[in-house]
Amino acid sequence: MAENWRVAMTALCNQFLTMHRAVSEVASLGPTETLIFLTISVANVQRLMRERAIPAQMCGTEPLPREWVVPISRNAIASATGLPRETVRRQVAKMIARGLLVDDPRGGVTPQPDIITSGGFEPILEGLMTEFARTMEVLCRTGAISIRHD
């Protein structure tokens, strides 16, 4: 990686910026809100992503059964993002008021159950995956990473 640092960092940063722009535009979120929203979204599917084989019915855009959704506390969001807890608390409250997030009865917050479709994220998913594939292609082509077939 050391000899490909510039290529790798440029490709990964470009991937992040593309994703950030797409998500923030769809949900009309500022940079801090986008960071918080993405942190919550990733945390909420962590149980599913640990599965060896993800059930087909959970791979698409249908809402996950609530028992598969893992709520995240505001303190955990602050720790994961490096944002002050009060900033996280205020931003989460705003996103709950806007209907993007819900307080989970188990504690913590989650996105609305059908956020992918109701939030308008479905149309951007293909573009984000295409950009991810381009990023991987660049990283492979330049030798920053290689794919092993074990």
Describe what you observe in this structure.
This protein has 150 residues and is mainly alpha-helical. It has one domain (2-141): Arc Repressor Mutant, subunit A (Orthogonal Bundle). It is 58% helix and 4% strand. The chain contains 7 helices and 2 strands. The protein has helices spanning 5-27, 31-44, 46-49, 74-81, 85-98, 115-118, 122-141, and strands at 101-103, 109-111. A two-stranded antiparallel sheet has the order 1-2. Helix 1 crosses helix 2. The longest helix is centred in the N-terminal third of the chain and has 23 residues, at 5-27. The mean pLDDT is 89.
Quick structural gist:
The protein has helices at residues 5-27, 31-44, 46-49, 74-81, 85-98, 115-118, 122-141; strands spanning 101-103, 109-111. It has 150 residues and is mainly alpha-helical.
What keywords describe this structure?
150 residues, mainly alpha, Arc Repressor Mutant, subunit A, globular
Side-by-side strand order of the widest sheet = 1-2
* Whole-number total of structural domains: 1
Structural class: mainly alpha
CATH top level class name: Mainly Alpha
**In DSSP terms, counting alpha (H) and pi (I) runs of 4 or more, how many helices?**
7
- Secondary-structure element string: HHHHHEEHH
Strand content: under 5%
Uncertain spans: none
SSE layout:
Blueprint: H1 5-27, H2 31-44, H3 46-49, H4 74-81, H5 85-98, E1 101-103, E2 109-111, H6 115-118, H7 122-141
Antiparallel strand pairs: 1-2
Helix pairs in contact: 1-2, 1-7, 2-4, 2-5, 4-5
